[in-house]
Design goal:
Blueprint: H1 26-41, E1 46-48, E2 58-62, E3 68-79, E4 83-88, E5 98-103, E6 105-111, E7 117-123, H2 124-137, H3 148-163
Antiparallel strand pairs: 1-2, 2-3, 3-6, 4-5, 6-7
Amino acid sequence: MPPRPILSFPDPRLRVAAAPVMRFDADLRELAADLLDTMRAAPGIGITAPHVGVSLRLVVLELAPGDVRTYANPVLDGVSRETIRHVEGSVSMPGVTDELERHAHVRVRYHDLDGVEHVEEANGLLAVCHQHEIDQLDGVFWIDRLSRLKRDRLIARYNKLRRV
């Protein structure tokens, strides 16, 4: 499948909570395949359906080449008190990153592409990615987790990159 166009920050559709996946069918599988191709072309390690303008709770991750993970309707079902700091960015805001603090361990409840429910325990980068992408599905863009000063500086840097 060809990569789909990615919405660019500050597109307001990135701030809308996505609807739950209700139909686990060929269309959903096609969307997941398109998301994978789009993420790889970006490039990135995670993408959601809202990144391509589709308001559905669907996430595709590929933290290592060939290790593709797809999550429909993911929700955090538990988080650790322990936190970690990790550099984050977005396919919708290429060229800029910053360090965020997230829970070091999470439990995620989700459905696969057949509609079967699963629970996954995640640490480190995978835990960070789950939190980042679930935020996006909830309409929370990653820079919202930065202080106002850091967010304003990052947006200014991003706008400068877009002009060049």
